[in-house]
Specification:
Number of helices: 6
Strand order of the largest sheet: 1-2
Shape: flat
Distance between the termini: 22 Å
Structural class: mainly alpha
Strand content: 5-15%
Helix content: 40-55%
Number of strands: 4
Order of helices and strands: EHEEHHHEHH
Radius of gyration: 22 Å
Length: 189
């Protein structure tokens, strides 16, 4: 235990214990925050819209230049897709740009900082969603925070006390599994 009293010239202070910290990061999610303002987003976006969104929607890096913007467009163009102007593919590519910039890249950078300081760090991927309970279109996939209702037992609102455990809804059983996994992780890593 580190005694901060000595470090603060004898004044009463906090005592801090060194603790093993475990960091868990969900790196599979999408971000819809900007999509409602894009006309016709449910039908996809055209190449001009994709390019304009990348070039004008936000700064991707400090001291951003045209070369950075061109590199982002190049990186997120699906070169293997025979039709590079497919509006559904372009919509997904734009969602990937936003998701990577807002969530994945910062998560990886943070994880690297934790690892550099010998802090156990884990990534996980959450791909489950129930279309009937989400306020988002199915093409959006799992949105940021989409795992939290399962982590905190949201599906238990519909728990049927008269049904056996095996006959509970798949969402309740899945939520219980996620809760158990998170609890186990908190206990043992």
């Amino acid at each position: 235990m580190v005694d901060l009293n000595k470090k603060l010239h004898g004044k009463k202070a906090l005592q801090i214990r060194r603790a093993r910290i475990r960091i868990i990061v969900n790196f599979k999610c999408s971000f819809l925050g900007l999509s409602p303002g894009i006309p016709g987003i449910n039908n996809g976006i055209n190449k001009t819209t994709f390019d304009n969104l990348v070039k004008h929607e936000r700064k991707w890096v400090f001291n951003q230049t045209q070369k950075v913007l061109d590199a982002v467009i190049f990186q997120y163009t699906n070169w293997e897709w025979p039709n590079k102007t497919n509006p559904l593919v372009l919509r997904q590519q734009y969602m990937n740009v936003i998701t990577d910039a807002l969530f994945k890249a910062p998560a990886v950078r943070s994880a690297q900082a934790f690892v550099n300081n010998n802090i156990s760090t884990y990534f996980y991927r959450f791909d489950h969603f129930n279309v009937s309970t989400l306020p988002f279109p199915p093409w959006a996939g799992v949105v940021h925070g989409g795992d939290l209702p399962y982590v905190f037992g949201g599906p238990f609102v519909k728990y049927d006390k008269s049904a056996s455990e095996a006959n509970q809804s798949a969402e309740i059983i899945f939520s219980r599994t996620i809760i158990n996994m998170w609890s186990s992780f908190a206990k043992t890593g």
